[in-house]
Amino acid sequence: MDIATATPVPAVSARRKQPFNWRLLIRAIASWIVTLVIVFPIIFLVMTAFKTELQAIEVPTQWFFTPTLEGFHEVQERSDYLLYARNSLITSIGSTLLGLAIAAPAAYSMAFFRTRKTRDLLMWMLSTKFMPAVGALVPIYVIAQQTQLLDSVLGLTIVFTLSNLPIMVWMLYTNFKEIPPEILEAVRMDGADLWGEFRHVLLPLAMGGLASTGLLCLVLSWNEAFWSLNLTAAKAGTLAALIAQYSSPEGLFWAKLSAASLMAIAPIVVFGWFSQKQLVQGLTFGAVK
Amino acid sequence: MTAITRQRQPSRLLPRLLMAPAVGTLFLWMIVPLVMTVYFSTIRYNLMQPEATGFIGLANYEFFVTDPSFGTAVLNTLVLLASVIAITVVGGIALALLINDPFPGRGVVRMLLISPFFVMPTVNALMWKHMMMNPIYGVFAQVAQFFGAQPIDFMADWPLLAVIIMVAWQWLPFACLIFITALQSMNREQLEAAGMDGANYLQQLRYMYLPHLGRSIAVVIMIELIFLLSVFAEIFTTTGGGPGDASTNVAFLIYKQALLGFDAGVASAGALLAVVLANIVAVFLVRMIGKNLD
Fold it and tell me: Is the pTM for the entire model greater than 0.95?
């Protein structure tokens, strides 16, 4: 390396270092404040969950108190949390796996055998999502009733799968499109059969897209409220429906409401924290080149 | 090249076969309810009056459209849609620019920031309604009192604003994280060069950041559009559409007709109008941003 190009570099960074640190500090403080403001409702919810009912509605808010598990006990006594949690778990995992199984082949086909109609097909799939779910409520309710799928975990899983399918296809398609088709062609030239091509080349390359699509579907199904409120009752209700039971008349039982809410969101939020990098990568829908 | 294409000709069947399950199920998922809805919308079908039946033409549509709630609901839907998209896109870009560069604890900030996206709508709604917006015990009321102001009764006076806040809170982190991911692929050298050439921050924003974010803005709007047209749980668990129709959107109005009014016929007519409305909005937006989605 010659001196002419090497010397200016440290000079520039040294000159910049002094003012840059101030900006860094301000930036860090501002970021933290904004983040805490945004997350504040959740922090407040977690705090309230560990209070007694009286402490919960005390004004001004108590920030330091002896935590109690009273709220959690009462929630478990009043309603079978585990049943709802189990339903949430089965429907979200079930619809994710089923959705991937249906969406992945379609997305593969659209990405690697593109025709002029591919874009139209994709737009058509997405357009089925533009219809508010409530538009299909009466027919779906009637069908579910006729087929004994009302208030059943299976029925809810199917509905979740179908309502997530367009987004899953779209997301997988944009992910698969990034895989250079030349790789697959090269493998094919080398004489690999379809299974070999899939198993050793496509699957490893598509893993990221499949993972983030699965994650999104998991989150959407876990949090889905419309269908679970309207298609289930005591048997197949998910956590989202359980929480809705705590709406109006019980308005001021904040500790119980918070405890139930915390139990409903904790699994998916913690899960989300640890998978957010993967999730966000896939969510860009090819927007990042 | 020709060899490859010729080789692939016979396997035209395979892509179609792979596509069939998705296309088939989605087609059924769309067409069966649609046909049933069209049918229901032209007959007398009130769950409370099972003896009253028969074809009544467009009477259900007339009833739904002439209901004064209809106009309010359409307007509320559009206001909700526009406000949340505006808040999340502008706020998301601002936030993304703020935390784009490294600083101590950036990883934790990113992790915490996405939390609202994982909170289910029913919890989101009840949390805001009670703990934040309650006019006596809520956090907002306490803050207002601290500054000597009159606490706002959101549910009574500003119900639509309350719903907008809840929904925007949920989608802001989502938008922000997508923008951050996009910002990370920006050309640092170009930015520095622009800075050296004396481009101020606003100019950099206008000519460098925003054009780079174009595609992600399109994606964010597209996804939010899908979910915002059918906002339901936030309204259902908090305001119940009220007071009056102040926070009723089209989705909730149909729901009221179907399950609270027991009139499946009118609700079906409303559902079809909602589909038309949704598609108008969609076509309009897809035209606008569609070229960014390819």
Answer: no
